Amino acid sequence: MNRTSPHTVSSSSDEIDLLELFHSIWQQKKLVVGCTILAGVLGVGYAFLAPRTYEVSSVLRPAAINELDALNRSEVYKLPPADALSKVGAQLDSYEARLGFFRSHEQLFTAFQKPGQSLEQSFEDFNRNSVNLILPDPKKSDSLSSYIRLELQYPSDVDGVTILNGFVDYAIAAEREQVGADLKVIVNNRLNELKGKIDAARANYDTDKESKIAKLLEDDRLKRAQLQDELSALRLQMKMERTNRLAELSEAIAIAKSMGIKTPTTPSSMADAARGGSSQVMRTEVNNQKIPLYFLGTEALEAERVALQQRTSDDFTNPRVAEIGKELQLLEVNREVEVLRKRGNEDIFLQDVEPLRAEVARLRNLNIDMSNLKLVTVDRRAQEPLAPIKPKKALVIALSLVAGLILGLFVALVRHFVLTRRETVPYSSLDDGRFSRRERKDDQPLL
To answer: Closest by alpha carbon to 297, among 352, 257, 324, 331?
Structure first.
């Protein structure tokens, strides 16, 4: 007997099964259409009955350069427009700022507060699911890409426009207040630094002045001591000279007495007197030798000795004593020291502090109106949305119809395979028995 190839039987059976499959699905078209319609109805119901979710957004861009000119020209706080935008963006993204706005405007967030939840838990749910901060692509460095967009998704019973605009204004005001506080701290620190430098200059001046006064007084004391020493030495010298003079006078008196000289005379006069010359002769004697003291005679010498013995002070005999007295009198009061000590406003004598004082005056007169400081430009404020973003009706209905069609086809296929299996199992068992007997018969050897 001729046997059919297994591949031929398999291809024909597959072709028959595919046709039967299409035929079976076509016979169940009502089921498929019913599932599709049911899913579509459910999708339409969800699309029209599901809670509406709306979305609003606000866009911030860098402020104009002139808006921050007053702050930047203060030379105390530098804040370029791009940095100001970054600071406001950080404030918008700050958990603390969002929580502060949430606490200060609880009436706007009533819909987000659920029973049994604390205020922080309700805020956490709102902050995680509703607010989204979008920054530009960092790969783009052009100025046109410098922006910050803040998006808010909210249900229909929430005033999202008021919330978003209010939060943007709150963040800008908070950052403006922070900049003002930073500026105040920086100015105060700079003033304290300048005050410290001026105080250091004043302390240095006081030290220099006291050092100068001490040096002047020390010089006066040294000069006075030197003059006192000189005066003492000079007086001792004059006393010794007087003592020596007395000794000379005593010796001269003794000689004059021994020679009988009472009145002043000269050697020539004494020689003439010894020769008995006329007294009417007038002589002129020129002698370059010093005449001995005893020629003055005892009367003059004794008179001089008495005067020297009665003298109480020799100061008048030397003009240097008067000069020393004058100098000592001048040293009694140092007028330069007196003037230094009587200075009233000593700050005017401080050196290298004029620039510091000018800077202090400038910082104290620094008047920047922080209430009008514009950190960023609100390029677009939140507006009432025209339609909700969720649910998307057309997409929901289309997906529901596709899902219903797929579900109907799946159910039809399942039914087809179940029914086919029930019909083919008994016949297949009989065929297997028949074929087995035939195969055994064919396989028997010929006798």
So the answer is: 257
75 exposed, middle or buried (CB, 10 Å; 0-12, 13-18, 19+)?
A: exposed
Q: What is the pLDDT of residues 282-300, one digit of tens each?
A: 555 555 567 888 888 889 9
Residue 100: which residues within 8 A CB-CB, separation 6 or more? 170, 174
Q: How far apart are CA 234 and CA 129, in angstroms?
A: 108
pLDDT tens for residues 270-282? Answer: 776 666 555 555 5
Q: Specify the length of the chain in residues.
A: 447
- Judge whether residue 47 has pLDDT over 60: yes
Cβ neighbors of 44 (< 8 A, separation 6 or more) are 397, 400
User: What are residue 60's DSSP bridge partners?
Assistant: 148, 378
DSSP of 169-222: HHHHHHHHHHHHHHHHHHHHHHHHHHHHHHHHHHHHHHHHHHHHHHHHHHHHHH
- Contacts of residue 51, defined as CB under 8 A and 6 or more positions apart, other chains included, come to 155, 156
Angstrom distance (rounded) from CA 126 to CA 95: 12
Confidence of residue 71 (pLDDT cuts 50, 70, 90): confident
Give yes or no for a contact between 220 and 331, defined as CB atoms under 8 angstroms apart.
yes
pLDDT reported for residue 175: 92
User: How much is the pTM?
Assistant: 0.62
- The predicted pLDDT at position 5 comes to 45
